[in-house]
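Listing S7. Sequence submitted for prediction.
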Amino acid sequence: MGKLVGKALVVVLVFTSLTGCAFSDPRIFGTPASPSANPALTSDQAQAATQIQQAWAALAGLATLDPTTPRWAAMADTLKAQWLVLVGPDPINRVSALNVDIGAANKLATIQDGTDTANDTLQTARDSFLAQAKQATGTTAAFWASLACSAEQIRQGIGGTYNTATPANQSATIQVVDEKTAVSNLISSYDEGVFAMRSAMGFLDPGATGVQSRYQTVLGSLLNDASSLATVAQGMGITQDTSPPIYQLPPGRDSDASLALLASTQTSLIQASAQWVASANDPTQAITYMMNNATVGMPLGVGMAVWPGWPDS
């Protein structure tokens, strides 16, 4: 699904890690240098990696103790992917470490032991990451805010659902723009999301009242969040284009197409809200919005790896 005309689009940049040259010119020697660690992260990176590793160990222990509950392994996989990036050479651009052992899973006596440890560790990590995000700017702020959102989503998944987690775009990062443009892009994402949910509900079996109700809840949440964002935009002097946009729908008119619309809506909102965080001089308001609305506030009922590049497998 994508907007064809009428609104501004969120622009993403694709980063590729270069590990060697494909040229045959014999005058080219050596291997390109590895990316250096981002100095804005180094002082707190080790602590963050430790917190993620501890949460991983608890959830990996739960996956071993209770293999019939698939969300333990899904959440552990997400945390391991994050940990590999945190200990890698360039966390901002998500260059993962290679051949690094994360350690051993916790040996648990009971499920309660594991869930208590994971809950407490993720809660502490969330608060720490939020504090780091609010002290930073640019993509560094978006990086920490996204880690905080992911920690909270996984924490909520301990007592909920994380079986069918949908990763965000794994090859995209956020382009920093001026803050008004970022907010306008987020509003456009909400406009498109409202259209998507209304279309998705039309693709569903009318007899599937439970599923219809679930999508209606998502639609209501999007409308409420868009309304509150419009108030923010008004205070910033942002005037929105009122011309009717034209959207492209995914192929098919069935439940699978509805799920595709739902996933694309979440991904769009995540990327647009992260852009707002990265583009704000003071990211506090944008971070709060990203945490409470665009990510963990989505009433979908499944987990989401919120930062592009945090896959669930």
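Caption to Listing S7: primary sequence and predicted structure tokens for the chain studied. Helices lie at 42-65, 70-86, 111-135, 138-158, 179-203, 209-235, 255-279, 284-295. The chain is about 55% helix and 5% strand.
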